[in-house]
Amino acid sequence: MIHLVKRPQPSRFWTAVTPLLAVLLTxxxxxxxxxxxxxxxxxxxxxxxxxxxFGEFAFYYRGQLLIKAGPLILIAIGxxxxxxxxxxxxGAEGQYIMGAIxxxxxxxxxxxxxxxxxxxLMILAGALGGWAWGMIPAILKTKFxxxxxxxxxxxxxxxxxxxxxxxxxxxxxxxGRGFPGSRNLQxxxxxxxxxxxxxxxxxxGVIAAFIAVIFAYVLLTRHIRGFHIRLTGEAPRAARFAGVxxxxxxxxxxxxxxxxxGMAGLFEVAGPAGQITIDFNSGYGFTAIIVAxxxxxxxxxxxxxxx
Amino acid sequence: MxxxxxxxxxxxxxxxxxxxxxxxxxxVGKGEVHALLGENGAxxxxxxxxxxxxxxxxxxxxxxxxxxxxxPNPHAARGSGVAMVFQHFxxxxxxxxxxxxxxxxxxxxxxxxxxxxxxxxxxxYGLPLxxxxxxxxxSAGERQRVExxxxxxxxxxxxxxxxxTSVLTPQEVEILFxxxxxxxxxxTAILYISHKLEEIRTIxxxxxxxxxxxxxxxxxxxxxxxxxxxxxxxxxxxxxxxxATKEFGEVRLKVDGLSAKSPGEFGTSLKDISFEVRAGEVxxxxxxxxxxxxxxxxxxxxxxxxxAQMVSFDGAPVGTQGPEARRKAGLLSAPEERLGHAAAPxxxxxxxxxxxxxxxxxxxxxxxxxxxxxxxxxEQVIEAFDVRTPGxxxxxxxxxxxxxxxxxxxxxxxxxxxxxxxxxPTWGVDAAAAAAIRQALLDLAAQGAAVxxxxxxxxxxxxxxxxxxxxxxxxxxxxxxxxxxxxxxIGLMMGGAHDMEMAHATA
Lengths: 307, 507
Prior knowledge:
Strand content of chain A: under 5%
Oligomer: heterodimer
Largest interface: A-B, 24 and 36 residues
Number of helices of chain A: 11
Radius of gyration of chain A: 21 Å
Order of helices and strands of chain A: HHHHHHEEHHHHH
Structural class of chain B: alpha/beta
Strand order of the largest sheet of chain A: 1-2
């Protein structure tokens, strides 16, 4: 008989190798499935894993890589900090939408003024919009013990209703011949999230994502706040014993992930999407949950302090 | 000579890296009360788990009543007449006594018949218990009775009891012993696991002593001194705790009219607790588990906040401050539950050192953590308290209970607290290490700290404490000097008598 026994100490080697192994297995199993469907498996795998970076049309895809990765990373970083504390923000999509509305709203309010201060103000407004939307489940949880998973998820649908409303109402382009959707921010220089290096897809949101990664890394491995967040997730009673106030962790984590999602929304609406439309949001907030979980498997942050 | 009931020959069980039992042989006669004595980690648990069918031996054989006996699972063991009362109860708090008993039976009778059977058995064996009461409201002693009665209803020939008295008051222990004697008279053999020597000398006819998985001696406990038993158990003589004559200083910890609601549903609220502890003094708090010990520690550590003046430290009211602020001032504590409360199971010892020592040991500068320094502090604790572990990078979960306990106590003691409150400081620690921990607590007091030791081990409290009080249903008894206290007085202070009356009245 085979028994599964938990290792007393996770193996360093397998902790590092497991994600790579997972990708490899995905390729193999995926290949078998394509073969079963009668498609050439190697070609399929090449199309998925190789062509976007090195293939014929890579000049286009490479840019798309950063454009897609930017908001995903920005949102996922916020979510994963919360997940570490056992706080499950499932409503990043809603915070992303509200951030985009708030940020775009500030930009549109200044139209057609030309000033370097507008874009930073929009980023701030985007972060605030997401933060405020994230604070709703946080406050309800700390005051009334509601479940943040349900509340944050439901608020996504509320946010989508807001989006539909402002796209065809408050923020509608007055010169848009009655079509729903705001002015195109890409055509308003002071408010546009422009590509910094042409053709790479590198825009300010990608920069923000990299900064967020470094911030999260330092927070979780080098700062008492991050240590307390991890402690809350690993052993809530031990965290209280250490002096952590659970309510504060909840407010901090939901607020932070909301603000980052809101920023991601602003960067998207002022950049790749260009305008507030009924469906400009492309589900980044939900995809980022999966990204955060996959990243969690690697547990890069927890591998460090023990060294 | 009694007829042999259980005969064990050459039982061996090895786990990766450790031999739990090596060539263990002994026999238990019909109706015999047989002690299995040994330190933590000596292999007692593995041995009885093999008898109860929870663990399969690598080699060796067992005979029960003259027939080969190799239970593949507890179900089969119960079928052969072997029953076991575990140290940790497996009861559902929200269900009644009768429902809990029915859940553990192979073919439970109808609820009404079962209730009657429970009443009959509890009367026959002097174990007062009302089948209709909810387990959540029972004391630890009463919960144990539920487990015992569940076993007795199956009419066992061999009853295994794992550290049964660790949760009982002296009076409850006396009741339990009467029951065991009665069972023994009726021919039920009892395998009694304990490391409390006086108990074994009182109740057991013979004893098998285990050390590092091997039988080192078999003896008649009544004819052997407690000291000789202890030395056989440990394998060497160990230092008794040294007590310096003391003079007490200023009041360091003052608790005044402390009342607090328990955060947990089945917890015990604290009711109007007042006491003072002076510099250099050790206060012992006894009481049966679940009478407010956890809440008491939480109120002093800062996990439960109260009105400011309810807890004062060196004259300053701290009742509204959280654990971090109290720790910084010098008021430290170590809770009972090691895994998950005193330490985070999946974090390394370094991270667990950071858990309470961040501010006080300078492991943190403006919120930024100095991990090399934390590792240094963890290694210091490992070294000073002889924690057996490969290193500070090991996860807390990977340590044995005793070693983790040494780490947790060491972590607080080495921070040089002015007041230290510990709950069950030597629970699950072997005799030599327990003596070392008690010595460390006494040394701390000798250096001018005020120490509060909460424990269910009365011998321990008598050994380290200057004064003694007991918790009963969230109230603290009067505090009396330890010198001159009798066991009966302690029992009354623990509210045992009161508890017994209640139990009889409801039965």
